[in-house]
Batch of 4 targets.
Target 1
Amino acid sequence: MTYEEYIHSHLWKTLPARMEAFQRDGMRCRGCNTADGLEMHHRHYPVVFGAETADDLTTLCMACHEAVTAVIRHRRYMR
């Protein structure tokens, strides 16, 4: 299974760690505090899909998720 397939799977959508992270973050974006368009950002990718813990995840809205991902990619590829 690819990462893209995983994040569209039932396993990802119902993952207890994902639900725990949403609850921990109060169903709000950790970047801008909106409750709209929430997504889950992987701070650490699991070796095995479905093995994430809530500590590996951060709730972000789509805009903040795109911004964080862009910064990470920029840093990774500038090396």
Target 2
Amino acid sequence: MAQREFYVVIERDEDGLYVGEVPGLCGCYSQGETVDELLDNIREVIALCLEEYPDQEQPEFVGLQKVALK
């Protein structure tokens, strides 16, 4: 099987935990005390999401944009 790659959006929550979400997979998110722990956890969740929904299409990732409000 060919290697698949997924983008993970990472934020830090109010408790200091790193929270990651894969925008291309519905319901695919996890957390960890470190970025490395988060990435290990999110790999497991990605595998579970792909088992549950093997035919789920991954939309094209375009990018992130910061927007300012006045």
Target 3
Amino acid sequence: KKQGELEFYDGLLSEFNSFKDVYRNIMAHGLRSYTELEATNVFNSVSSFMQRLVMKVSEPPKPS
């Protein structure tokens, strides 16, 4: 069980870092702007990420 949890959160962390490095850092520092299509793709990716996260976090803890 613990291994599965670690894999789940490791995957989420990798995805989060990808958003941060590719989109947030560049945009926050004004290094470039994005087209509407690129912005929509980012929005959809972050939305999917958040939906997976909230489903996992909102699960009640299972007894050991």
Target 4
Amino acid sequence: AIEAGLVERGIHTPVHVMRSDAGVMSLQAACERPVNTVLSGPAGGAKGAASLAAVAGYPNIVSLDMGGTSTDVGLSVDADPRLSTDTWISHYPVKVPIIDITTIGAGGGSLAFVSSVGALRVGPQSAGADPGPACYGRGGELPTVTDANLVLGRLPEYLAGGEIRLDAERAREAIARHIAEPLKLSVEEAAHGIIRIVNEGMLGALRVVSVQRGIDPRDLVLVPFGGAGPVHGAELARLVGIETMLVPPTPGVLSALGFLLADIRNVFTLTRVGLIGQLDLERYNRELATLIDQAQEWLAREGIAPEARAVEVALDLRYRGQAYELPIPVPPVLDEAALAQAAARFHAEHKARYGFDQPFVPVELVTLRVTALGRLPKPPLEPAPEEGEDASAAVVAVRPVYFDDGYRETPVYDRSRLRPGNRIEGPALILQADCTTVLHPGQSLRVDGFGNLVVRIAG
């Protein structure tokens, strides 16, 4: 329907659909293999975060996409989102490459409540967009994370460039009635408790994609985005031990930018089980050559010029007896030396991801994997020259904001007025149409040439 409607309107440009592995494909390819669109929305965000951070000099990141109902956390290494071929959607295993993300029910609309045993809980239930948080004034009566941030002064009175007015008094009433009074707390204490609990939930997800994948989070940069990510990002970075946070220029629509930065991609696989050291190399090379030919033919059908094509080859390996594999890159023509090197890389990758290896156990090849890549034109990402450090021209207000030690008079900055090279010392709020960035006391930021906010996290 999209294709036909565009043709009727005289628009003949090709239409691409985002894939689960952070690539794109044509509408025809999406119709042929719709399974490759599973989790493709979060894939766009992960791709956008990885690309922008890499251009800015940070190739290894953990991305945090916090919206209204959920938060998606993913790891990107060497500027590429990490993929998994062992994903479950509900009760169904999906054996196609999908970005390796952890999703939790924590967002701006997550509901806060006192449980039957008297404990403060947040989520996974959400107020959604309708009626939404109590402060939206659309009939919602239960307090949410957005209400808590508003009560603490961490959100402006208007969102989306003035289209949505937030009612702070409704937010205070909801938190007072449902949280503060039952727990005998002040409204500010209750709101701060809501924020601490939702942050702890996201902190667990950050640890899953870093520590449990064999990566020290202190070696990563946090890239928060989505409508609520930059509100919580600086405190999450401090809690997990990350020293640098990078807030993209347009965090609320970063997934859309990720779509524009993605390349054509498709994966061709063939299951061929055998033990390393006992393979018929002549047969395996013939089958790899066939897959490579299929990849090249597919790229030609997608309209990719020969000079813009690339093909990557990998073997899905596992220890004999395992039920999951790891893709290990190999050259397009296999020999004994290449297989030995692949086995050694598999041991190292297995130890990095799962904390152990078993070099005494035979390594089993399960799948031949060929990835077709077609480079597409991309929007230019060029740095602007840095100007002075003084950011005072961007200050639009000063107001009290509640942090761990109580209220502090906090300058509010209009991000559109910040210039490359500007520096800000926390506490501070940086406002823009699609999100708000909260800078805590003791933290600082500078604006780089790409317009990113590069935040230095205090210990």
